[in-house]
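Appendix B. One record, verbatim.
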Amino acid sequence: MNILLIEDDRDIADLIAYHLKQERYSVQLCSTGSEGLKAARHDRPELIILDLMLPDMSGLEICRALKADAHTKNIPIVMLTAKSDEIDRVVGFEMGADDYLTKPFSPRELILRIKAIVRRAQSSELHVQGAQTVGVLTLDSEKFYMAVEGKEVKLTALEFRLLQYLIATRGRIATRDVLLDQVWGYDAALTTRTVDTHVKRLREKLGVAGDYIETIRSVGYRFKEKIS
């Protein structure tokens, strides 16, 4: 697996690279945002580890640019930051980041997060091939496309995975803990409130189709077979 590491702190970068190589991952290191952005577009790594605070541009800018590019939007991104506020995690996820780690963190935890992302990518439930239509919703995982009543709706990578999972398990209740595990890859630093926040935003984006996502009080969520 080829991993692009964009981190300006050499000591941290060397430590992460060492542990990644111990797991037999191939690592490319960039110390500036512009250099990392260029490498991501040219080399198309299988995963990107991205520091939020870089000398020339922010990790959020890089994440936004990569997710807006058809050639790089499906590359998983793990963001690293010294900030710990929940708002920073939420903004990172809104930009399309797949996971988030606050410094200091253990290299072992980073490895586990990466393996969780790979596991999700290999999950057939989260990656139904081709387009599928469920009521007024159309979802195409290959083109990263979603539409309501024929009108395209832009989703972040996380929102797209969340909707995919709910549709794939429609009719069944998904607890908040299950969603954290299957969609986020479970992060002990995240709370079930994170799930509620993202479901609320997903519903808002879905508009009339938001009613497909039913809240099961004190338990979780269920994607209904149809809406009235």
